[in-house]
Amino acid sequence: MSSNQSWIKYLAIAFGLVLALGIIASIVNGGVAIMRGFGLIENKNQIIEQGESNFRQDFTGDLKSVFVTFDTGSITLQSGDAFVVEGTNVPPSLNATLDNGKLIIEDKKSTQVFPNLFGKDRMTNLIVTIPRNTQLKKLELEIGAGRGELSQLVTDELVIKQGAGEVVADQLLANSGKLSGGAGAVHFTNVKLNDFEINGGVGLISIQGIVTGEFEVDCGVGQTNLDINGNVDDYFITVDQGIGPITINDRSISETGVGTQSAPHRINIDGGVGPVYMTFK
To answer: Is the pLDDT of residue 272 over 70?
Structure first.
């Protein structure tokens, strides 16, 4: 794309995202406040005082997949010596069920999309521990607003939908998957991703580890760091530069087709607004 087209496209994306977030926040919180004033929904503070508490639920049986829809707060998914869902300040509307190998965690009574903008509600802190050495068929995590952390997990398919907040992963292995970015940072360390796609939102994207197969990054607004454990000669790299430099091992590039097409792995970069730094070692 031309330089002028890039500026127009990505500045429009950045402005549109900021404007949309502001409008949605105002509408949602304003509407919730009005409905609370008329008694159409319960007051959030009353729910906390009467219902929210410590939560713990132990499970037994085979685990094949995990599906989490998490509204606000902090959630950690990790492997360990137990099979348990536990947390603090957990609303009574949060359910955790295991059915035919599927662990489903969801909050069925969420009313506030952007928490703590006009209040001081206590945040939910949820920890999901699955048995060590479990290989999941699918792990799907959808976060509204808050922090999501994945640690020492193995899955055939990984799907992450980020709202507003941070997503962190360490020692994660995914044979395929997709991350849809929102507003916030993405930090992956010591990961192994195969046939993986990242659609960036607004914020830093930092990936450190091994990437194989088809690895695609559609950059949004913000810096992208790819610290890859591998030989650059094993990758055929295509780039479409946006606004900001794209470098490989500190060498600026802008052309399409770095490396040989017979290389065993592919990296496709669609630049956005911000620099892209790729390092191979």
So the answer is: yes
Neighbours of 248 (CB within 10 A): 22
**Segment 107-112 mean pLDDT:** 63
The stretch 228-238 carries a mean pLDDT of: 96
Query: What is the spatial distance between Cα 77 and Cα 141, in angstroms, rounded to a whole number?
Result: 10
Prediction pTM value: 0.80
pLDDT of residue 74: 96
Residues with Cβ within 8 Å of 38's Cβ and at least 6 positions away in sequence, in order, are: none
Supply φ then ψ for residue 22, to 5 degrees: -65, -45
Q: Measured between alpha carbons, how far is residue 205 from residues 48, 177, 201 in Å? A: 34, 16, 9
The phi and psi torsions of 144 (rounded to 5 degrees) equal -80, -65
Across 2-33, b (16+ Cβ under 10 Å) vs e yields eeeebeeebeebbeebeeeeeeeeeeebeebe
Letter for the amino acid at 156?
Answer: D
Strands (E), 119-234: 125-131, 135-161, 164-174, 177-180, 186-199, 205-218, 224-228
Instruction: Name the nearest CA neighbour of 253 among 225, 232, 277, 229.
Output: 277
